[in-house]
């Protein structure tokens, strides 16, 4: 899946400078981050509604729209797909699954995975201040 997203991201970057009259992506860039955010939020809500209604095909279609609008927002924010994959790998090493770190400091599992054991101590970010683990 990450290959598809990376190809889409490159296509979005390439479309950024096209004619907004013919390119939706160029039009989104022309209208700016608030329009991109609005479209992304709309797609997220459409996915939620379709999922609650049990419309699997619609969830698939709207999820593709959601991922498209997410890559447009990434491009606008200067975020690359590999930046997100790196963060997901960091969480996977920390927690065993790619999940958001808890807000409050957590007790790391006693037996860290070999990859975690070889790594520098993980620093859980709280708000904007990174706190060193002892
Ligand atoms: N992957 C996508 C893609 N996925 C979804 N969409 C568009 O996103 C829209 C989904 O949002 P909506 O449901 O809000 O559709 P809408 O109601 O018509 O949108 P609005 O009228 O509300 O703006 C669809 O109409 C699709 O046209 C996409 N538009 C473009 N791409 C790719 O982006 C690249 C650049 O394409 P252009 O933007 O056409 O240059 C190409 O690789 C395209 O394949």
From TrEMBL:
Keywords associated with the record: Amino-acid biosynthesis, ATP-binding, Cytoplasm, Histidine biosynthesis, Hydrolase, Nucleotide-binding
Enumerate the subcellular locations listed in this protein's record, separating them with semicolons: Cytoplasm
Q: Which family does it belong to?
A: Belongs to the PRA-PH family.
Q: Write out the pathway annotation from the protein's UniProt entry.
A: Amino-acid biosynthesis; L-histidine biosynthesis; L-histidine from 5-phospho-alpha-D-ribose 1-diphosphate: step 2/9
Please report the name of this protein according to its UniProt entry: Phosphoribosyl-ATP pyrophosphatase
Which catalysed reactions does the entry list for this protein? 1-(5-phospho-beta-D-ribosyl)-ATP + H2O = 1-(5-phospho-beta-D-ribosyl)-5'-AMP + diphosphate + H(+)
Q: Report the SUPFAM superfamilies cross-referenced here.
A: all-alpha NTP pyrophosphatases (SSF101386)
Enumerate the Pfam families for this protein.
PRA-PH
- InterPro entries per record: HisE, PRib-ATP_PPHydrolase-like
In the record, what lineage is assigned to the organism producing the protein? Answer: Bacteria, Pseudomonadati, Pseudomonadota, Alphaproteobacteria, Hyphomicrobiales
Q: Name one GO cellular component term.
A: cytoplasm
Task: Please provide, alphabetically and separated by semicolons, the GO molecular function terms listed in this UniProt record.
Answer: ATP binding; phosphoribosyl-ATP diphosphatase activity
Leading EC class: hydrolase
- For this UniProt entry, which residues form the secretion signal? none
UniProt-listed Enzyme Commission number(s): 3.6.1.31
UniProt entry tagged with the keyword Amino-acid biosynthesis:
yes
The record lists the organism as: Bradyrhizobium shewense
**What is the primary gene name for this protein?**
hisE
């Amino acid at each position: 899946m990450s290959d598809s997203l990376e190809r889409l991201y490159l296509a979005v970057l390439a479309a950024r400078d096209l004619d907004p009259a013919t390119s939706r992506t160029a039009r989104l860039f022309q209208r700016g981050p608030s329009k991109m955010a609005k479209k992304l939020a709309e797609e997220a809500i459409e996915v939620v509604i379709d999922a609650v209604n049990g419309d699997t095909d619609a969830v698939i279609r709207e999820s593709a729209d959601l991922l498209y609008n997410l890559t447009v927002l990434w491009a606008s924010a200067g975020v690359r797909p590999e930046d997100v994959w790196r963060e997901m790998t960091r969480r996977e090493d920390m927690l065993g699954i790619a999940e958001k770190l808890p807000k409050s400091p957590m007790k790391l599992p006693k037996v860290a995975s070999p990859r975690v054991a070889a790594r520098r101590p993980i620093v859980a970010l709280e708000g904007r201040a990174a706190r060193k683990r002892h």
